[in-house]
Amino acid sequence: MGANTQFELRGFNHVALVSSDMQRTVDFYSGVLGMPLIKTLDLPDGMGQHFFFDAGNGDSLAFFWFPQAPDGVPGLSAPRSQPGFGEWTSAVGSLNHIAFDVPPEKFAEYRAKLKAAGVRVGPLINHDESPSQIATTMHDGVYVRSFYFQDPDGVLLEFACWLRALTPADVKHVPKTAQERHPAIVGA
Description:
The protein has helices spanning 22-32, 107-116; strands at residues 14-19, 37-42, 49-56, 59-65, 98-101, 125-127, 134-135, 144-150, 156-162. By secondary structure, it is α+β, with helices and mostly antiparallel strands. Strand 2 and strand 3 (49-56) form a beta hairpin. Residues 11-162 form the VOC domain. Keywords: Dioxygenase, Lyase, Oxidoreductase. This is Catechol 2,3-dioxygenase-like lactoylglutathione lyase family enzyme.
């Protein structure tokens, strides 16, 4: 694919989310997903905490814990559920999900490990260019495989593996605009 001619971006330094229970977050991300906890901070003036986990490849996943943070609102601040199990849209400006890149040869093993750890995982999804964008069987047009699951706070996570290199031919859709949106009315 093309190179960035504006900035030398090397990936993500970190993506930061908000946790309701930092201990439970550490238990899940380090204990279940095996991500090493690499930095912890108590924020000044009792504002909370900020913890960082190694997400691999030099990238980090971080969490804030704020003592007075409002609860998330499923369907607004995050998807209501995971793909394959219900509604998974979320509000503009929200974080819909985080997809971790995993090796294709470990894909099935990792799904089984999560299930053995008691994590509810969604169905295997073979993403292709068909009208439904999901293939029921593997074929040469499947470009990525994935499955979804949620952390203890309902953050939607995905394990995904690319099955082929993407090319300029994969960029062929005209971006939609704000004028084409039909926002849902909250409370309706």
